[in-house]
Write a sequence for this structure.
């Protein structure tokens, strides 16, 4: 069954909350499912699966909502920051709002991980028809303990620079910590749901006490195992959607629907989502564009800017992570630069995040062959708004797309700056193997260079704790790769990376290469275009910056702050 989708903001009492609403077209429905995501890196990894689940539910004629909790994704930040209590409260407020609108007869909550725990607690505070608890977190205290144990891997000098626990970009402050300490779904609270589906990992067993609690307090309980957990929560570029679990959830939602006492019709737009919202002096606007509105992005700008704003920063997807950026970097950076009068547009290319694959392109393809087409469409919509200058910025795959776009888009487009953060390739090989192997090789070489002065590394080598044979093989392969490039250059064989670099600088466009420690980005560029790199550095057309102490994913707050300072200088200079 066809459906429409609409994104926007709902001004809940706790904070302005970003929602996606999937609405069936052919049949009016008073049934609604709210998808409750987990938090942190699990939120980023499961984003793809939950979008597919929302689409599958809408195709059966049931309305579906995806929510970003306040403090996560594109939602506003609550005063106390992201906490378990604020997530639960937002679900209760959303359900109460929908009940007050008399828009839906049946409201069901489907949650994964901590999102399932939030859904369960919310269902004890408001009326819901059914609950799907997909691998729920039984104890917040246990979750917090695991986070604290993982945080112990931080070097001591890094710990001294942070005032809170952080793992994989998730910052756990005192308010969040205390709310997690109190969270438990094995307690005296009773769900108001008529039906519950409890899914647990195939590799584990169900939680006996929780299963018993459900059986004693809920009319209809279904408990089953599912497979595909590890693939679903993998790094976003490697995730696999567990369709078997999705099918089971969709079937459960269908049989759990209660028949109303009389025929009711769902209002045309029961949510009345706002296309934009204000965050103090900042305005954010949800924009669907492209063919059939299949592409999606968020424009962020100041409402107090002096004079017209004709320059805009365009943030490009980092790998397969959606437009909020890794660890919500793009959302946070966009709002910070907007306060300084610099507008930005963060959007998803087709097949990534909230821009589903609709034209035959592969889903979840970070190095999508249609990325340049989508960047052009993003620029066109920004031109219609009034922007004339476009600063392209991206991390990893987004850096590649920024480089390629600056090289290939028509020279009539004004692209004064292209900011490449931790790029791994400059010419993606769509047969894949060659490009990936080269990235791995150059990454190893960069690590070798960084370890040359380490006494511990030399000690491990002489005590046979390092695979010396692999090291020498890599060094030989690296030397051979460099030699081939030099020979091709001497023979006048055109190198596509060198040509692209010439095109970028010739626009004119200043290229900024921002690299974390041991990143292969500079070595790869030098291998393909050493002479051009040296020439453009001397001319000031190419700037190199090192993000000292950072990793590829910029997973710690102090790394993100160092990157932001570099970006702020660039953006303010281009304002």
């Amino acid at each position: 069954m066809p459906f429409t989708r609409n994104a926007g903001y709902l001004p809940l009492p706790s904070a302005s909350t970003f929602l996606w609403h999937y609405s069936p077209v052919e049949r009016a429905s008073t049934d609604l499912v709210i998808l409750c995501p987990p938090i942190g890196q699990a939120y980023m990894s499961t984003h793809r699966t939950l979008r597919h689940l929302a689409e599958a539910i809408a195709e059966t004629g049931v309305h579906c909502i995806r929510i970003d909790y306040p403090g996560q994704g594109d939602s506003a930040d609550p005063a106390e920051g992201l906490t378990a209590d604020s997530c639960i409260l937002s679900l209760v407020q959303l359900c109460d709002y929908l009940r007050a609108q008399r828009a839906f007869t049946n409201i069901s909550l489907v949650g994964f991980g901590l999102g399932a725990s939030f859904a369960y607690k919310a269902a004890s505070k408001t009326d819901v028809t059914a609950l799907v608890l997909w691998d729920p977190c039984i104890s917040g205290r246990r979750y917090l303990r695991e986070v604290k144990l993982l945080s112990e891997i931080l070097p001591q000098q890094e710990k001294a620079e942070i005032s809170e626990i952080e793992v994989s970009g998730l910052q756990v402050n005192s308010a969040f910590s205390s709310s997690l300490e109190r969270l438990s779904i094995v307690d005296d609270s009773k769900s108001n749901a008529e039906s519950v589906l409890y899914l647990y990992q195939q590799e584990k067993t169900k939680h006996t006490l929780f299963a018993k609690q459900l059986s004693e307090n809920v009319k209809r309980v279904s408990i089953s195992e599912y497979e595909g957990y590890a693939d679903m929560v993998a790094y976003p570029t490697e995730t696999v959607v567990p369709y078997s679990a999705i099918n089971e959830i969709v079937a459960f939602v269908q049989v759990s629907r209660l028949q109303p006492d009389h025929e009711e019709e769902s209002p045309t737009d029961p949510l009345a989502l706002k296309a934009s919202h204000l965050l103090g002096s900042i305005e954010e606007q949800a924009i669907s564009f492209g063919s059939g509105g299949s592409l999606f992005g968020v424009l962020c700008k100041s409402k107090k800017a002096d004079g017209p704003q004709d320059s805009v920063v365009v943030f490009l997807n980092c790998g397969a992570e959606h437009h909020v950026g890794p660890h919500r970097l793009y959302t946070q950076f966009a709002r910070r630069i907007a306060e300084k009068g610099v507008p930005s547009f963060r959007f998803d290319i087709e097949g990534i995040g909230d821009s589903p694959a609709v034209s035959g392109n592969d889903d979840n393809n970070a190095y999508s062959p249609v990325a340049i087409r989508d960047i052009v469409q993003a620029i066109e919509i920004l031109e219609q708004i009034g922007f004339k200058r476009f600063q392209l910025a991206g991390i990893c795959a987004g850096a590649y797309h920024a480089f390629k776009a600056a090289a290939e888009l028509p020279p009539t487009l004004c692209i004064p700056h292209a900011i490449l953060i931790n790029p791994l390739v400059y010419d993606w090989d769509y047969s894949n193997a060659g490009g990936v192997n080269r990235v791995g090789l150059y990454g190893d070489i960069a690590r070798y260079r960084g370890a040359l002065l380490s006494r511990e590394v030399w000690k491990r080598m002489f005590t046979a704790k390092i695979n010396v044979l692999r090291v020498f093989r890599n060094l030989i392969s690296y030397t051979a790769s460099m030699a081939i490039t030099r020979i091709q250059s001497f023979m006048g064989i055109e190198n596509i990376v060198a040509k692209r670099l010439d095109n970028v600088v010739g626009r004119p466009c200043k290229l900024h290469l921002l690299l974390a420690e041991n990143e292969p980005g500079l070595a790869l560029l030098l291998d393909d275009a050493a002479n051009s790199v040296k020439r453009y550095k001397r001319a000031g057309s190419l700037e190199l910056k090192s993000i000292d102490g950072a990793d590829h994913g910029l997973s710690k707050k102090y790394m993100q702050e160092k990157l932001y300072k570099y970006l702020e200088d660039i953006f303010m200079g281009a304002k």
About this structure: The CA atoms of residues 326 and 553 lie 7 Å apart. The radius of gyration is 25 Å.
